[in-house]
Design goal:
3-stranded antiparallel β-sheet; 4 helices
């Protein structure tokens, strides 16, 4: 099966998100959000308590000392979330903008032996299915991932429903889905 496509920045960003999607990252994100929420709730509660009851103890602690102890943790978890939710997607989009070979048309051929891609700039690559680790699918794209975490991107926008089904069948037979 053969098709030609032109990658977009959104396709590349979706592929990067899909590559990083895993149970471990979901658990880590849940922990980070929960801890950030707890730290900020305690910090805000201490500020409010300090305004309403300036001379009393908060959770058997001196309020300014408690705020000083909790503030670094609250800021650290907030920065952790910002790095993974803001900086990483920004860096991926920037990487796409700098990679001129990704912006032209790309010819792709998929068969039972492997995957071949050729760019408009003349880059050419063919890999057999045993060279890859796994594949994943989202609403927008398929990705096929090498053991080195480099991936080949197959946008669904260039394929008909029958072609998508055929690719799914070939990938299922050749590689594990993660």
């Amino acid at each position: 099966m053969q098709f030609t496509t032109k990658l977009t920045e959104d396709d590349y960003a979706a592929a990067c998100r899909l590559k990083l999607k895993s149970v471990h990252r979901t658990i880590a994100s849940a922990i980070a959000y929960t801890l950030a929420f707890i730290f900020w709730i305690f910090l805000i509660a201490a500020w409010i308590f300090r305004l309403l009851h300036p001379r009393d103890l908060f959770l058997n602690q001196n309020v300014p000392a408690f705020q000083t102890a909790v503030l670094p943790g609250a800021v650290a978890f907030l920065l952790w979330i910002l790095v993974f939710r803001v900086y990483v997607p920004y860096a991926n989009r920037r990487k796409f903008r700098k990679a001129k070979n990704l912006r032209g048309e790309m010819f792709t051929e998929i068969n039972s032996e492997g995957l071949m891609q050729k760019t408009a700039g003349g880059s050419y690559g063919f890999s057999r299915w045993p060279d890859y680790s796994f594949w994943r699918e989202s609403e927008q794209i398929f990705i096929v991932v090498y053991p080195t975490n480099v991936f080949c991107l197959l946008p669904k926008s260039a394929m008909s429903a029958e072609q998508q089904s055929e690719i799914r069948t070939i990938l299922t037979a050749a590689l594990p889905e993660k």
